[in-house]
Design goal:
Blueprint lengths: L1 E8 L5 H14 L3 E8 L14 E11 L2 H13 L4 E6 L7 H6 L2 E4 L7 H20 L6
Parallel strand pairs: 1-2, 1-4, 3-4, 3-5
Helix pairs in contact: 1-4, 2-4
Length: 141
């Protein structure tokens, strides 16, 4: 079973974001061990990356993947023996360049810009969708 860490700079305050994140974390529990960690905007995010994790930084200049492509990536990583994946979400200023350089993959959700709080909800939903695709669930239409 995958262990997925999501490290986020900044804290969610709005109940609609926290409720959505809580719901997707609950759903993801069927497929992986999920841990979302909120860090202060000025925290050193690199120091919190778990040892041995495959690191995916969310940034606008990253690679774009479809939902099935993300599912295939997760499946491929599992096949290679990667059991821990760490996603990094920056704050309002994004991620430091050194952190982006440390990542195994830079991932972009879109050419559009989204608030980092919404990006967290979107990432959790896409992870749930990807695991559902791999499990053959009807969630992905």
């Amino acid at each position: 079973m995958h262990r997925v860490n999501v490290l986020c700079l900044g804290r969610l305050k709005e109940p609609y974001y926290t409720d959505a994140c809580r719901e997707y974390c609950k759903r993801l529990g069927a497929y992986c061990k999920i841990e979302v960690t909120e860090l202060a905007e000025d925290a050193v995010i690199a120091a919190r990356i778990p040892k041995g994790a495959y690191v995916i930084a969310l940034c606008i200049e990253g690679k774009k993947l479809s939902s099935p492509d993300l599912a295939a990536l997760l499946d491929r990583l599992a096949g290679q023996g990667v059991s821990r994946i760490c996603f990094l979400i920056g704050g309002s200023e994004g991620l430091p360049q050194a952190v982006k350089a440390r990542a195994d993959l830079s991932l972009s959700m879109s050419d559009m810009t989204f608030p980092h709080h919404l990006a967290r909800v979107m990432l959790l939903e896409q992870l749930y969708r990807a695991f559902s695709i791999n499990a053959g669930s009807k969630y992905h239409k």
